[in-house]
TrEMBL record:
Domain Methyltransferase type: 77-131
InterPro entries: Methyltransf_11, SAM-dependent_MTases_sf
Protein name: Methyltransferase domain-containing protein
Keywords attached to this entry: Methyltransferase, Transferase
A molecular-function term among this protein's GO annotations: S-adenosylmethionine-dependent methyltransferase activity
Coiled-coil ranges per UniProt: none
Keyword Methyltransferase (UniProt): yes
GO terms, biological process: methylation
Segments crossing the lipid bilayer: none
Length: 260
């Protein structure tokens, strides 16, 4: 009976948690994490340009991208997005988007593999995919196990595993950075006192931040030159006629046998 219950727990389908995640970001700790993640996202989005940037299931207000003309959001119906869709079926054409932003989307996806494939399918060659996720090896990762909030259901995938998935999908990692080194506390006073920890860890680029940001570029496959097929005449490959032995050659062979 216990084994059956355990098997049912493993095979239980995951619920869409986009709404509860957005509600958590309205709390004091959620706003603290939002500010620290915005410090990573906004300078990065300043470097990109093009026509469209796409945010899937944005838990907070979308970070500004001044050099991109249109910002589009899509995702679950519980969020205030421009287009509603399922995570494995986006109403976006292939190779149509310059930048796709997944802010904690993989942490709460029903299938992170399917979501990442769908996002990669929409990025144009030479475009970028920006992923922000929660890091398990940090103060925030410890908070995930102690809290009763929605973060108990988060995957918190390791950055190395996501980088491997991106390589399979034809992406090349350009940047990996960390943030939110301070523990999330309700006291603003203690948060300010621990500001030195944030500055020191960011300067040392320690891989122990509460969140990470991965920036990957979709590789452009070069066109292979079309080599014209060379048709070789079969007649040219026929063996040539061997000349018959002359009397001089026969006398030479007899002389060699005599010398032996």
């Amino acid at each position: 009976m216990k084994l059956r219950r355990f098997a049912e727990l493993l095979t239980r389908p995951r619920k869409v948690l986009a709404g509860p995640v957005a509600q958590w970001f309205l709390t004091a700790k959620g706003q603290q994490l939002e500010r620290m993640e915005r410090e990573l996202l906004e300078p990065q989005l300043l470097r990109h340009f093009g026509s469209y940037v796409l945010h899937y299931n944005p838990p907070v207000a979308m970070a500004a991208a001044p050099s991109i003309r249109h910002q589009v959001s899509l995702g679950d119906k519980t969020l205030s997005v421009d287009m509603q869709c399922q995570e494995h079926r986006w109403p976006v054409a292939a190779d149509a988007v310059d930048v796709v932003v997944l802010q904690h989307s993989l942490d709460f996806a029903i299938s992170p593999h399917a979501l990442l494939r769908e996002a990669a399918h929409c990025v144009r060659p030479g475009g970028h995919l920006i992923i922000v996720g929660a890091h398990a090896w940090s103060f925030f990762g410890l908070y995930r196990y102690l809290t009763r909030s929605v973060w108990r259901h988060a995957y918190c995938l390791p950055p190395a595993r996501i980088i491997d998935w991106l390589g399979v999908l034809g992406f090349c990692l350009e940047k990996r950075s960390y943030g939110a080194y301070r523990p999330l506390l309700n006291s603003v006073r203690w948060q300010n006192k621990l500001g030195w920890l944030e500055r020191l860890a960011a300067r040392k680029k320690a891989p122990l931040g509460g969140c990470y940001m991965l920036v990957a570029r979709k590789m452009v496959h070069g066109a292979h030159p079309q080599i014209q097929s060379m048709r070789i005449n079969v007649a040219k490959l026929r063996p040539s006629v061997v000349a018959a032995k002359t009397s001089h050659q026969k006398n030479f062979e007899h002389s060699e046998e005599h010398d032996r």
